[in-house]
Amino acid sequence: MESSKMNDPLIYRRVLLTVDEDDNTSSERAFRYATTLAHDYDVTLGIVSVMESEDINIFDSLTPSKIDAKRKHVENVVQSYVQLAEKAGIKKVEPLVYEGGDVDDVILEQVIPDFNPDLLVTGADTEFAHSKIAGAIGPRLARKAPISVIVVR
């Protein structure tokens, strides 16, 4: 092992924060950590939420205005986190809203390749009601993600 590498700092340049519009406690803790990191290292912070297609019942899915209202709600949640991050002094914040099936699949297959983060910050308690896989999203992302993951409790 090269000792010079052991002394090099490990700095993340692009941090991706997942927020669940239904789980404020978990998202708030993860937000506090991610913004502290982004502020201290002056790095780009992406804030993402996924609008799950399973969250929309069959009747609502036939009504474009209901889907638009749900999409707008998720966009507003992400935008409120972006505004809080900017208020905390984060200079580079990117709002990200995605739609799709299972949250972890969307994050792993779409968000990470699109945003290209080197660190994912997520809450430990985040559990989406209609997720195909039982259990919290954070620990599942930690197992599957190709990048470093911090699960905030």
UniProtKB/TrEMBL annotation:
| Entry similarity comment | Belongs to the universal stress protein A family.
One short Pfam name that applies is Usp
Instruction: Please state what the protein is called.
Output: Universal stress protein
Can you name the source organism? Lactiplantibacillus songbeiensis
The UniProt entry, under Gene3D superfamilies, shows:
HUPs
UniProt cross-references to InterPro entries, sorted A to Z: Rossmann-like_a/b/a_fold, Universal_stress_UspA, UspA
In terms of superkingdom, the source organism counts as: Bacteria
The UspA domain covers which part of the protein? Answer: 12-153
